[in-house]
Specification:
about 80 residues; mainly alpha; about 50% helix
């Protein structure tokens, strides 16, 4: 299995030790799981290719005003 060395400042290393101990994992196992999670949850490149392709001359604030104007106020239940 390939190995990787990383450098952490002491505050980050202390936080890593704390969460690894809480999760009953070694530092390496905890970092490996974190990397796997990040890679699994990464958005596909196709997601970024469509950014900016929306054809609408309005600015975002105008679009939000239009969306909010279409929402009706409704009574909310009181928190007890």
């Amino acid at each position: 299995m390939p190995q990787l060395a990383i450098y952490l400042d002491s505050d980050t290393a202390r936080k890593l030790d704390k969460v690894a101990k809480r999760d009953k994992l070694s530092r390496s196992a905890w970092v490996r799981k974190a990397v796997e999670t990040q890679l699994r949850n990464r958005l596909p490149e196709s997601f970024f290719r469509v950014l900016g392709t929306w054809e609408d001359g309005r600015d975002p604030a105008e679009i939000l005003r239009e969306i909010r104007a279409g929402q009706k106020d409704r009574e909310r239940e009181q928190i007890r």
